[in-house]
Amino acid sequence: MGQSATDTNHTRHHEIPPAKLQIRLKRILKATFVFILHQWLLIGQGVVCILAYYFPDVAKHGGVIRSEYSILYGAMALIFFISGLSIPRQKLFLHLLNWRLHVLVQVFSFLFIPTVMLAIVHIILAGDPHGRIDRALLAGYIFTACIPTTIASNVVMTRSASGDEAAALVEVLIANLLGPFITAAWTVTVLPDTPEFAPWRNGDGDLKDMYRNVFKQLGLSVLLPLVVGQLVRWTCPERTAQVLQKYHIPKIGTVWALQTLSATSIVFVVCFNIALYIFLTIVCFYISRPPRFLSAGFAGAQQIFKRISPEETIAVCFCGPAKSTALGIPLLYAMWTQVDLFTKAKTSVPVLLYTTEQICVAHFFVHVFLRWHRSVHEKSEVGGDDGQVNGVV
């Protein structure tokens, strides 16, 4: 009897009071809600894809919302107008002269990635002599490796991860001004010199219309809104900053980036695209912030392996691995006019799928780099290391 009373008292002693249980439940629900809210990009992408499947006439070319104008020009212009409002012009000019940043991003995008992709394609060709993997897909991957970085999402992701938005914006502009002139010739040069790739090596398409359309889009949707935003900021700097902070206007640019996505479902290349993007991001991180031991190797090594700032590192990590459908698809169809439509469609699959998946993976890297950025600043405040990656890779 005494033992029973003791057990009862012991049980009551460990019972959680209803009020405390309710508080704990609220915390769990709040944490779950916040986590789901932070995945708005992936959820939004899924919703947009479902809506596009059931209502294809709404956002198609010439559809209800005239996406060739409202999205390609309107939504993009809004993103870069907000960037123009947010970024001090001194910072833009500073990064225009930042040659180290230009070399890191542009050489990585136009030289390192095509080299890696060419090596992978040759490995596949050696291991697949019977052509079970469609050669149009391989040609498409080489083409994808040679196109420039994407426009809107790089700026949006860099901003979200507390990176240097001005650095991302400058690199995006430079890459997409160089891209139309570099990509076509570089793709034909890099393609394997074998009979199975002959249809793509003999591209004779007229690129004049493509050049005109690409530079028209860059001018109207990127440069003009950016200049207008800078003029507004220069005219009313204090008022502009108050409005941006009060109404959280930069978030609007992030939401509009959803509208530029393409959706394609090719399961067997999904894992490769994700692994490739993660690998390229890791390489970008370490070329931006090389390990300390490299700078002590020989005379002059400290200057060669000099680390850039955490904010610029984040911009490099988003701009380096990314590729653009805005230039890629028009250029692909302009380059290979003699190739039949079905083959061109298969060639475009890597472009569409990689550029879609990079948004998903980059969304998770936003949280990773936010955490890393905070840890770097916490260490610098206490006089510690300036942030070799901790828990990033």
Provide the fold topology.
Elements: H1 2-14, H2 18-38, H3 40-54, H4 56-59, H5 67-86, H6 89-96, H7 99-127, H8 135-146, H9 152-160, H10 165-190, H11 198-201, H12 208-235, H13 237-247, H14 250-256, H15 270-288, H16 301-304, H17 310-319, H18 325-335, H19 341-381
Transmembrane segments: 33-55, 70-87, 99-125, 137-156, 168-191, 255-288, 351-370
Keywords: Membrane, Transmembrane, Transmembrane helix
GO cellular component, one term: plasma membrane
CATH overall fold name of the largest domain: Na+/H+ antiporter like fold
Rg over C-alpha atoms, rounded to the nearest angstrom: 25 Å
CATH architecture descriptor of the largest domain: Up-down Bundle
Broad CATH class of the largest domain: Mainly Alpha
- How is the main sheet built? none
Beta content: under 5%
Which residues form runs of ≥5 with pLDDT under 50? Answer: 249-266, 388-393
Shape: globular
Q: Supply the helix-strand structural class.
A: mainly alpha
Q: Which percent bin holds the helix content?
A: over 70%
